[in-house]
Task: inverse folding
């Protein structure tokens, strides 16, 4: 099995408990208006726009494929900035064993691995193989997912997955669609399934400042209070078993309609935390 790999971070302390190796796959099944790494959303279409604008000469065009020379690349990321396709030419299709070979070098220093994206759920067979290898080595295996892939249809993957960090973008289906282009009925289904299965590590909510709304429907209608109440009502018996992470929206890396959007204030974030406490959440973190 193989997957399109955007990058790997050998040692990370922000992608789950302890020190972990983080693997980021390329490709996503939604397109969030506030995505902070939009270059992971799509696969390169070989348009070649980035080739002539690489200052290091690390890119070339072969037919309809952009070739990346990692040895020459200076990691300036100019190719990502000029890409009109929300993609990156610095993506490698890697076999499971190739990825595991890189991870295994870190095993003396890590407690587990976390696969993110893009959307990791687009590669269930690859993940099943990778997590099987990692589990045998004594590593915990986490998914960081937008929840738009139905995990109930992948029991083999869930059997080797320890925990999932789940994003919940919006509770109202119409708002979710305007914000992401996706369907949050699957997210809600996954939320309940993962909570009941004891595999939910944290629910992540990106909190927007409604007062600085640009007037666009996709951001003015996002009601974080509704999201908090909705999540709490959906998985009431399990609120003590997972973390609620309230993520302050920041426009770093964001492109398009929300790239100049302001962040909510600390006071606004604290009020959301107070509401979460009232709704029964026990482990709440503002970041």
Result:
């Amino acid at each position: 099995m193989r997957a399109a790999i955007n990058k790997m971070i050998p040692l990370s302390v922000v992608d789950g408990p302890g020190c972990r190796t983080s693997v980021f796959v390329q490709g996503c099944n939604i397109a969030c208006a506030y995505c902070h790494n939009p270059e992971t959303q799509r696969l390169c279409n070989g348009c070649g726009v980035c080739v002539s604008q690489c200052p290091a000469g690390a890119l070339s065009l072969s037919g309809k494929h952009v070739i990346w020379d990692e040895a020459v690349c200076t990691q300036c990321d100019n190719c990502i900035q000029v890409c009109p396709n929300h993609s990156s030419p610095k993506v490698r299709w890697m076999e499971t064993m190739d990825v595991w070979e890189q991870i295994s070098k870190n095993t003396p220093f890590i407690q587990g691995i976390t696969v993110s994206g893009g959307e990791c759920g687009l590669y269930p067979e690859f993940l099943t193989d990778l997590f099987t290898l990692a589990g045998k080595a004594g590593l915990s295996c986490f998914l960081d997912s937008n929840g738009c892939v139905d995990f109930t249809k992948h029991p083999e993957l869930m059997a080797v997955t320890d925990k999932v960090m789940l994003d919940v973008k919006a509770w109202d289906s119409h708002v979710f669609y305007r914000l992401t282009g996706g369907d949050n009925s699957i997210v809600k289904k996954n939320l309940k399934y993962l909570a009941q299965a004891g595999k939910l590590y944290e629910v992540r909510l990106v909190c927007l400042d409604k007062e600085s709304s640009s007037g666009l429907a996709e951001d003015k209608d996002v009601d974080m209070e509704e999201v908090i109440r909705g999540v709490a009502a959906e998985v009431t018996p399990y609120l003590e078993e997972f973390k609620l992470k309230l993520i302050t929206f920041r426009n770093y890396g964001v492109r398009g309609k929300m790239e100049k959007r302001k962040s909510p204030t600390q006071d606004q974030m604290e009020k959301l935390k107070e509401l979460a406490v009232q709704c029964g959440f026990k482990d709440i973190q503002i970041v």
Summary: The CA atoms of residues 59 and 68 lie 5 Å apart.
